[in-house]
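Re: that chain you flagged

S.,

Sorry for the slow reply, it's been a week of failed gels. I finally had a moment to sit down with the sequence you sent. For the record, here it is as I used it:
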Amino acid sequence: MNAPQKLHDAGQSLWLDNIHRELLTSGTLKRYIKDLAVTGLTSNPSIFEHAIAGTSDYDDALMEHTGKGLDPEKVFFEIALEDITAAADVFEPIHDGSSGVDGFVSLEVSPALADDTAGTVAEAKRLHGLAKRRNLFIKIPGTEAGLPAIEETIAAGIPVNVTLLFSLDHYLAAAEAYARGIERRIKAQLDPNVASVASVFISRWDVAVQDEVPDELKDQLGIAIGQQCYGAYRKFISSERWETLEQKGAQPQRLLFASTGTKNPERPDTYYISALAAPDTVNTMPEKTLLAFGDHGEVGGVLRDDGGDAAETLARFSAAGVDLAALGTGLQIKARDAFVQDFEKLLGVVDTKINHLHEEHGVQRPSTS
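Prediction finished late last night. Pasting the structure tokens below so you have them in one place:
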């Protein structure tokens, strides 16, 4: 039994943090499901930007959708929906076999809506309605403007992947928004079984303090944050409040570990995967990390329900002068801004490639509506 299967058997879902058309058309994704225990998939604008810019796989689709008079953003979402729905169909048997707990794919709302609560809700409803897939998560950032959008989207019955969470406070706010959305559905006598994951970013913590802490603390902060959030997750889903909701048919919002590719070349390339094995959670990983874990990964113990020694480790960082609260806030803001920039870059790539293709074919680019 390989390491991914062992991790899966320990109760953690392995999701691929990547998507591109060749992954779908070549059968590679199906092979990852069979051989590497992959049970879901996440995406973001940067992933799509690399896929569209780096291959000719999307050329025909770019021409087709531009011919409808769509602008670059609309063209992108048409293409993204094609890939995402195809991936959702691949994972549908896993979704059905897990009673709707696993087998999800994720599509992000436009990062340009990061400060627009109403716009985020409207876009979440639009994308979910267009996809028509039960196993689609709409990714919404757990920011100040995103939290009420998460509650509203859950209340509308749309599954949500809460992204851009970094700190314990971020996780708890996301869990609260989810619970409120479920409570609203119960009050309205609607089905409370609406899935969600809360995505906590791990490795960026370590990158942020790499040059500010002694050697013995390097690459320890992200794991400690993950342990801390896992302890809070276990406490939340065993609370009287949540047990009441579960008795009415709700399912827990699972904790998801994101940004788990190793950034420090001095650490094993499977560093964060082995360290964050935990039942009833998800780890979404880059393709390179997944393949490395399948080749030589190891699964030791799993995280303790109480967060283990996270408190002690975090106290050592505080003693070393790291303001954890300020750093968590700053990381979320920085990530939010980076996602906006990535989205703008993506639209620039789409626009440039559309122009190039029309020049190559000797046809005039249609005007957009």
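What I noticed first: The first strand starts at residue 12 and ends at 17.

Talk soon,
D.
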